[in-house]
Write a structure and sequence with these properties.
heterodimer, A: about 170 residues, mainly beta, Glycoprotein, Type 4 Pilin, OB fold (Dihydrolipoamide Acetyltransferase, E2P), eight-stranded antiparallel barrel, four-stranded antiparallel β-sheet, elongated, B: about 475 residues, alpha+beta, Dna Ligase, domain 1, D-amino Acid Aminotransferase, Chain A, domain 1, eight-stranded antiparallel β-sheet
Chain lengths: ~170, ~475
């Protein structure tokens, strides 16, 4: 079975041949993969190097926690990968990006306006939550197509606050 | 939790209060008794002094320990306790009052011979602009009632002063309902060094050495260590003696902290006094061997201090990392959600104080700190190596944490060589040069999990396609495999 797995914009082609061997980008590895009796942890011996991790599925991606770092991993089998490519949504960088509230809170300010050009990382929304003001930044460069909140509004978790689209779609 | 443990060690029964959000919190389950106090928002629960006093009376509590945050530095609350015949585990209300207002705190410090950052106060903007000439630039405009960086403005040249005054007054008015501001010389490359003191009701005051708290973000400390890389024994005793004098000046009782700014030439200036036990107190406990919370409880019972200044010897090195639910790779955005996994690091030299466990909700109502990870070593190097090891071991899932930030700091050259000041984290430290080390391994692990899930799903078919239920079928399949 062949998978295309993406972590931090890096793609790996991983082929699972049988239970104790895999190919990663064409390189063969011996593996021993076990759910440890301690239910939440997984143990992987990769060419006898030992790794322990917690792996959870969340919103279509896999979160892998090992040695303090949390990796967000997208795993697609060949078919799903080709379908996604065909639809042009394989990468999050193209198309429309919704900015959702990461937590309930109060909108303090909206330093941009609809129709404005933003660069990736520009401040779009300032949200007060957990006793702190938090800057929500543009996930990509583009045009602010829509702002659905104004300063003073209370918002729920995952509420769409703004939409940013590619320049040429305007 | 920290406080409840100290009480139970001393054989004291405890009463906890909880809001709607905290019914299942650790402190509620651990205490001898627990009482519901109100809705989740702090102002309707943990900040309701009347309700807390009412519960204290109802339960027959003899004393209230205010912890840190919430009501711990409110003179009014300490006074209410006194008026209702309940012991407040902390300083007398008068001391909180004096140290709570920055301006009177400064005046008191000066009177006690404590050096302060050159500054000036004045009623009107004109007076302050005139006074600025003697203070010198760069300077800071600060709110009298301030804290946490609100109402604070750096000014580098006199032309910018009027605008800065207006802005600081607006912020101070909005945040504290009081627009009084004052001026202070801006100390560049300053380090935040604080001295822990203990005082009993009989006039005995000692200090427990210093804590280095320069690593801050948005005026919130993130990493503390004791002792400090830059404080030698001579400076320690000098700062300690001054801190003791400051505490005596307000007839202080209980544990308190005097915060100083230390400049490059080892001059130090009084910043403020925290009239409560602080988040970072464990590092002092580890290097001095004194249980500060237990001492507070003994002092509140009217006991004399068990130590003289000569008994206090600092041994080894301790570092504390505050583990927060926030994403260090995305501008430290707070992360909320339910903790699914919490496996704490253990082993030699590791202490962890936390109230979080699998199933805990990290809510937006309170601050984002989920635990304090403290490591001890014979030397600073050993403490850092332990901290690295403990950070790797620590597993929290469900929310993002700043563990990678701490790992990156423990690897940074500037931290290792002790070269940092209070602006280091915000101005000269970046996560973008961190290479996550196990990208391929993470990819493999996730793929194996996805593969395994896919295999199971293809074995368990939709209901109706098989004559018996999937559960039965699955258990048969499991048995077959044995």
């Amino acid at each position: 079975m062949k998978y295309i797995t993406t972590v931090n914009d890096e793609e790996f082609i991983i082929e699972i041949e049988h239970n104790n061997q895999i190919l990663v980008n064409g390189v063969r590895y011996d593996i021993d993969f076990q759910h440890s009796p301690e239910a939440d942890a997984l143990s992987l011996l990769l060419n006898h190097r030992s790794f322990e991790a917690v792996v959870e599925e969340r919103d279509d991606v896999w979160e892998v926690l090992t040695k303090g770092e949390l990796y967000t991993v997208k795993v697609q089998d060949e078919r799903a990968y080709r379908l996604a490519k065909a639809r042009g949504v394989a990468s999050d960088v193209t198309g429309e990006a919704q900015m959702k509230s990461p937590m309930p809170g109060l909108i303090v300010a909206v330093p941009v306006s609809e129709g404005q050009h933003v660069e990736k990382g520009d401040k779009v929304i300032i949200l007060e939550s957990m006793k702190m003001e938090n800057e929500l930044r543009a996930p990509k460069a583009g045009i602010v197509a829509r702002i659905s909140v104004e300063a003073g509004a209370s918002v729920e978790k995952d509420q769409v606050l703004a939409v940013i689209v590619d320049e040429e779609e305007e | 939790m920290r406080i409840l443990r100290a009480c139970h060690e001393l054989g004291i029964s405890t009463v906890a209060v909880f809001s709607d959000a905290d019914r299942n919190a650790l402190h509620v389950r651990y205490a001898t008794e627990a009482y519901h106090i109100g809705p989740s928002a702090a102002r309707d629960s943990y900040l309701r002094m009347d309700k807390i006093i009412e519960i204290a009376k109802l339960s027959g509590a003899e004393a209230i320990h205010p912890g840190y945050g919430f009501l711990s530095e409110r003179a009014e609350f300490a006074q209410m306790c006194v008026d209702n015949g309940i012991v407040f585990v902390g300083p007398p209300p008068e001391a909180i009052e004096i140290m709570g207002d920055k301006q009177t705190a400064r005046e008191t410090a000066v009177a006690a011979g404590v050096p302060i950052v050159p500054g000036a106060s004045g009623e009107t903007d004109e007076e302050l602009i005139e006074a600025a000439k003697t203070v010198g630039f760069p300077l800071l405009v600060k709110a009298s009632a301030g804290g946490g960086g609100k109402g604070m403005r750096p000014v580098y040249k006199s032309a910018d002063l009027p605008d800065a005054l207006a802005a600081a007054r607006r912020e101070a008015k909005a945040a504290f309902g009081d627009d009084t501001v004052y001026l202070e010389r801006l100390i560049e490359n300053g380090r935040h060094i604080e001295i822990q003191v203990l005082a009993d009701m009989h006039g005995n005051v000692i200090h427990l050495g210093e804590r280095e708290c320069s690593l801050q973000r948005r005026h919130q400390k993130v990493i503390e260590e004791s002792p400090s890389f830059v404080v030698d024994e001579e400076l320690r005793q000098r700062m300690g003696a001054i801190a003791v004098a400051a505490a005596k000046a307000v007839d202080y009782v209980s544990a308190g902290t005097i915060e100083f700014l230390l400049d490059r030439d080892k001059n130090f200036y009084f910043l403020e006094m925290n009239t409560r036990v602080q988040v970072e107190h464990p590092i002092t406990e580890l290097v001095t061997g004194v249980d500060i919370v237990q001492e507070q409880l003994r002092i509140a019972r009217g006991r004399r201090l068990r130590f003289n200044q000569e008994d206090i010897k600092m041994k080894g090195w301790a570092i504390e990392c505050r583990i927060n639910a926030e994403d260090p790779y995305n501008n430290y955005l707070p992360s909320t959600g339910m903790i699914t996994v919490s496996r704490l690091p253990t082993g030699p030299g590791v202490r962890i104080d936390t109230g979080v466990f699998p199933g805990s909700e990290i809510t937006p109502y309170y601050d984002s700190m989920i635990s304090k990870l403290i490591c001890y070593g014979e030397t600073r190097g050993e403490a850092i190596l332990r901290m690295r090891r403990a950070l790797e071991e620590y597993r929290v899932m469900g929310v993002k944490t700043n563990i990678p930030f701490h790992q990156h700091m423990m690897d940074s050259h500037r931290f290792l060589t002790g070269q940092f000041d209070t602006h280091f984290v915000e101005e000269r430290f970046s996560m973008s040069d961190r290479e996550a080390p196990l990208v391929m391994e993470a990819a493999i692990l996730a793929t194996l999990m996805a593969h395994e899930q896919g295999q199971k799903a293809s074995q368990i078919v939709a209901p109706g396609d098989r004559d018996t239920s999937n559960w039965k079928w699955y258990s048969r399949w499991e048995r077959l495999r044995k």
